[in-house]
Design goal:
Length: 289
């Protein structure tokens, strides 16, 4: 199963609420995923809007995810409480709208060693997991791979934490992995290596962020349209299609939904290449043997 969507309200959508964005994603763009962005500070969603989104998403088979505020630090004791608060607010809204995953950035090494950082982030995620349980929040905690050397979140670190905290799943920001590895993702083998690393977690679904990215010395500078970046999309899609991975591909490109639609067209092209047909539906891989 392949789901495709964008992070936030589509740029070309006139209405600027998440509800407007969701309807537009389904009806105009013909996409089946959306990541709601709670990235600016503490955000609370009206219960009525959340309830509408839950019902609409269910009826129309659109999957929802929520991105918590960017600045979170689960490694520094002084910042943990405020970080918890931001995550809990996002998680409560996510639960209300029936979203599957709340995405967070794990934190910074600061003065700590990599090992110590891993330890404190794991410890704090266990505390967070308890808070989720206490409030009966069933949303998974999505821990994102990060694109800068000073930020905790290499693919190996994210996998290590996910092994130890049951409600944590990795969120593969593929551009961040590419930037951190100074342009390491080029071929099918490169992408396959990522999925092979993840196999230890026995995941049934992968949430993947896609964008072009400008980077320098293993550090992300900023996002680019997919076609302007040097990470090719085709080998990623080939890896997904040929393994029949269950994925949600979320565009985080500056072109947002335009690049989500571009991803959709590339998926359909890849399916047609395999079936020899002249039509394809990105939601249906069953035509491929
Ligand atoms: Zn993020």
């Amino acid at each position: 199963m392949i789901r495709i969507g964008q992070a936030g309200i589509p740029l070309s959508c006139k209405g600027r609420t998440n509800k407007d964005g969701l309807i537009y994603t389904k009806e105009i763009l013909d996409l089946n995923a959306m990541e709601v962005q709670f990235v600016r500070g503490l955000y609370v969603m009206e219960e009525e809007e959340a309830q509408f989104m839950k019902e609409y998403a269910l009826e129309n088979d659109v999957e929802l995810y929520v991105h918590a505020p960017y600045y979170i630090n689960l490694s520094d004791d002084d910042e943990v409480e405020l970080s918890f608060e931001k995550i809990m607010n996002s998680a409560r809204a996510a639960e209300m709208m029936g979203a599957k995953i709340v995405i967070i950035h794990p934190g910074y090494y600061g003065e700590k060693s990599e090992k110590e950082t891993l330890k404190s982030i794991t410890k704090n995620l266990k505390v967070l997991q308890k808070k989720f349980k206490k409030e009966k929040i069933s949303v998974k905690i999505g821990l994102e791979t990060m694109g800068k050397q000073k930020v905790f979140g290499s693919i190996d670190e994210i996998i290590e934490v996910s092994k130890h905290v049951s409600s944590v799943v990795p969120v593969l920001d593929i551009a961040h992995i590419h930037a951190r590895g100074n342009g390491c993702l080029k071929t099918i083998e490169d992408f396959q290596e990522i999925f092979d690393k993840l196999s230890v977690l026995k995941l049934s679904h992968y949430l993947i962020h896609v964008t072009g990215v400008l980077y320098e010395n293993g550090n992300e500078q900023y996002h680019l349209p997919i076609k302007k970046g040097d990470m090719p999309l085709t080998p990623l899609l080939d890896t997904i299609i040929d393994n029949d991975y269950n994925v949600s591909l979320i565009s985080e490109s500056p072109l947002l939904e335009h690049d989500a639609v571009y991803i959709r067209l590339q998926v359909e092209k890849a399916i047609m290449k395999r079936t020899g047909g002249e039509e394809a539906d990105y939601r249906d891989l069953s035509a491929i043997k």
